[in-house]
Amino acid sequence: MSTVKRKGIVAGVLIAGIATATISTGLKAQDPKEGPGKDLFVQRCHTCHELNTVTVQRLSGNDWRVIVERMIQNGAQLTESESEQIIAYLTKMYGPEPAPSSASAH
User: Fold this and answer.
1) End-to-end CA distance of the chain, in Å?
2) What per-residue confidence (pLDDT) applies to 25?
3) Are 87 and 61 in contact (CB under 8 A)?
4) Number of C-alpha atoms within 13 angstroms, CB side, residue 73?
5) Are 85 and 40 a contacting pair, CB within 8 Å?
6) pLDDT in tens for each of the 106 residues of the chain?
7) Residue 64 neighbours by CB under 8 Å, 6+ apart
8) Computed from CA positions of residues 47, 73, 78, 93, in that sequence, does the dihedral angle turn out positive or negative?
9) What is the four-CA torsion angle of 83, 84, 88, 94, rounded to 10 degrees?
10) Does the pTM exceed 0.70?
């Protein structure tokens, strides 16, 4: 199986899992967390998605990269720099480790 096809399958499974987790668990929608890249994430991703579809996830940087690359293949208008900013934001704020709280940032 080619790498491209495998990435497509992984991205499809991840996206289906996101939708299923959101619907089946009734996870509470939340506003995107503050951090570098938030505005770009909101601007670029909200055109096609409800943001809570993303903000309830805890994915690795590699998983976020696969999803962002898949969105670009599906027509998302992102430069390489913008996609890197969004991936960094998603990994930091919605990665496997809890995002830093605003209280600890002071």
Assistant:
1) 49
2) 40
3) yes
4) 12
5) yes
6) 666 565 555 555 455 554 444 443 444 556 788 888 999 999 998 888 888 888 888 999 999 999 999 999 999 999 999 999 999 999 999 999 876 665 544 4
7) 87, 90, 91, 94, 95
8) positive
9) 20
10) no
Structure tokens of 37?
């890249």
Domain 3-94 classified CATH 1.10.760.10?
yes
Structure tokens at 65: 């990269």
Structure tokens at 32: 């995107």
Cβ atoms of 56 and 30 closer than 8 Å: yes
For the chain, give every domain's residue range. 3-94
